What we know:
UPF0227/Esterase_YqiA, 7 helices, two-stranded antiparallel ribbon, AB_hydrolase_fold, Rossmann fold, Esterase
Amino acid sequence: xxxxxxxxxxxxxxxxxxxxxxxxxxxxxxxxxxxxxxxxxxxxxxxxxxxxxxxxxxxxxxxxxxxxxxxxxxxxxxxxxxxxxxxxxxxxxxxxxxxxxxxxxxxxxxxxxxxxxxxxxxxxxxxxxxxxxxxxxxxxxxxxxxxxxxxxxxxxxxxxxxxxxxxxxxxxxxxxxxxxxxxxxxxxxxxxxxxxxxxxxxxxxxxx
Length: 208
């Protein structure tokens, strides 16, 4: 009787984390949901609306992944969601995809303390409190070595974050560095989805 080949583990659960002032209605979140729905409908994909408080956001993320199988889950996030995704990946020791990820949001978002609106629904407002800066610092994973594969998508044309800082922060990750692009990856994300999806489905064993 021929030996049974052992299939490598594949992705079963994916957490997508949106950025500051964004939502599950963002273009990237919707494209990701559609791509997996068509090609890998067996994957459980969660994209929660994250609360403004980083501490509350962390509790929300933990509540979702607490019962997920760490061996077959992954996380991805955009901008502030990329910062959160790195924290989740450090906690769960799972693969991650970072899309123009924030490196030091406590520094960058200090200018946004006060009333803000959601990009996809300007009628929806939230207050970003000064104490959230310390909550952001508490989620900093820069000193935690990555325990699973990482893929960073970085646009040199990002008008919000410094691509050099992102590239240095994720120097040990696989990187796709775009010569142009923008913070939202608006002209590039859809064409990159097959590479991102292959990386995620294989849990980082297939290079992007």
